[in-house]
Design goal:
With 274 residues, the protein is an alpha+beta fold. It folds into 3 domains: 7-79, Multidrug-efflux Transporter Regulator, Chain: A, Domain 2; 82-119; 121-272, Regulatory factor, effector binding domain (Multidrug-efflux Transporter 1 Regulator Bmrr, Chain A), CATH 3.20.80.10. The chain contains 7 helices and 11 strands. The strands form 2 sheets. Strands 4-9-11-10-6-7-5-8 form an 8-stranded antiparallel beta sheet. A 3-stranded antiparallel beta sheet has the order 1-3-2. The longest helix has 37 residues, at 83-119. The radius of gyration is 30 Å and the shape is elongated.
Length: 274
């Protein structure tokens, strides 16, 4: 009787262009067991027939089948999925395509918004639409604390409540202080959402009316220099005969979350005017 070829795991790995780590993972999953394990040395050997089995596993993975699904097929001694299983995978793929298409469109919208903001003139007059926002009002020790507040408190709570943020994203703060206080800033963080959900102690929802006319000004640099932009903004308003007509919003485009250098931080100051 002709002796069958036995390949050590390293040789089998090299020939099939798959790492030993992956082969061991397949073994743990019960997908592809070595044809023989030497009880003295622990060496694993694979047969020529297992090359085709491995090829089938890889082919099914490329079609979107999970390892668990492939294992189930192998246990049922099926060489290929049934028509029903293939149809289910087609439906899953179509759903993924839809989700990815939506994500791509949202990314395009965000890119266009970023380009519009970064290429706009320093001053512009725009209308702000009516929106629903998730709101959190608190006192912080300084603007740098805002990033930590968003990451550790506001973000997780909005996620827990199932908030769906609108695209492109729009978040801003409103300073409620009656006078300047560098270490106690009464600030309200607002982020546009698609709908109101159940409120909590941390997150409240409200509808903000449209602003027919707002002076929008780009501020580039750290938040401690907002006063420089306000000097310019109010000088511009006085020169053109505008008066403030509502609460000032500060929208954050680039900041500590994506720019290490504060000199590159981009904010948008929006002042309702009449």
């Amino acid at each position: 009787m002709k002796e069958k070829t036995k390949l050590k795991i390293g040789v089998f790995s090299r020939m099939m262009q798959l790492t030993v780590k992956t082969l061991r993972h397949y073994e743990q999953k019960g997908l592809l067991l070595p044809s023989e394990v030497d009880k003295w040395t622990g060496y694993r050997y694979y047969s020529i027939e297992q090359m085709q089995r491995l090829n089938t596993i890889r082919h099914l993975q490329r079609l979107g089948f999970t390892l668990d699904e492939i294992k189930e097929l192998c246990e049922e001694d099926e060489q290929s999925p049934s028509i029903e299983q293939l149809k289910e995978k087609i439906e899953e793929t179509e759903h993924q395509i839809k989700m990815l298409t939506e994500r791509r469109n949202q990314l395009h919208q965000l890119v266009n918004t970023q380009k519009r903001i970064k290429t706009m003139e320093k001053f512009s007059i725009e209308s702000l639409p009516e929106i629903i926002v998730a709101s959190h009002r608190t006192t912080i020790s300084g603007y740098p604390a805002l990033g930590t507040l968003c990451v550790e408190t506001i973000g997780p709570e909005m996620q827990r409540l199932g908030c769906k943020c609108s695209y492109p994203g729009y978040c801003f703060t409103i300073d409620h202080n009656k006078e300047y206080d560098a270490s106690n800033i009464d600030i309200e963080y607002c982020e546009q959402v698609e709908e109101m959900t159940t409120e909590s102690e941390i997150i409240k929802f409200k509808r903000l009316e449209a602003v027919p006319k707002a002076l929008c000004m780009k501020h580039i640099g750290p938040y401690e220099r907002f006063y420089e932009s306000f000097i310019e903004a109010f000088a511009y308003m006085e020169e053109h005969g505008y008066k403030i007509a509502g609460q000032v919003r500060t929208s954050y485009i680039d900041g500590a979350w994506n720019k290490d250098n504060p000199e590159q931080w981009l904010s948008l100051i929006q002042i309702p005017i009449k």
